[in-house]
Amino acid sequence: MKQSEIISLSTAELQVKLSEVRKTYAELRTAHAISPIQNPLQIRTMRRTVARLATELSKRELQ
C-alpha cells in the first residue's frame, strides 16, 4: 500500500487492514520457511506495509 492510501483510511479501517496484513505476513514467512516461495521480495514488502500501517495508527493515537 502507498502512504497516500494509508492516510486516507479511517482509524477503524487501519486497524482491520493492519490485522489482515499481519496475518498475510505471518503466512508468507511460514510458507518461506517450509519451502522457498516464488518471490521472496513479497516478505519485505509486507513487512514494510505492516510498519507503515502501525506507524500511522500510533501517529493518530498521539494526536
UniProtKB/TrEMBL annotation:
It holds the Pfam family Ribosomal_L29. The keyword Coiled coil does not apply. It comes from the Bacteria. SUPFAM superfamilies: Ribosomal protein L29 (L29p). Keywords: Ribonucleoprotein, Ribosomal protein. The keyword Ribonucleoprotein applies. One of its GO terms (molecular function) is structural constituent of ribosome. One of its GO terms (cellular component) is ribonucleoprotein complex. One of its GO terms (biological process) is translation. HAMAP family: Ribosomal_uL29. Belongs to the universal ribosomal protein uL29 family. This is Large ribosomal subunit protein uL29. It comes from Flavobacterium aciduliphilum. The lineage of its organism: Bacteria, Pseudomonadati, Bacteroidota, Flavobacteriia, Flavobacteriales. The gene is rpmC.
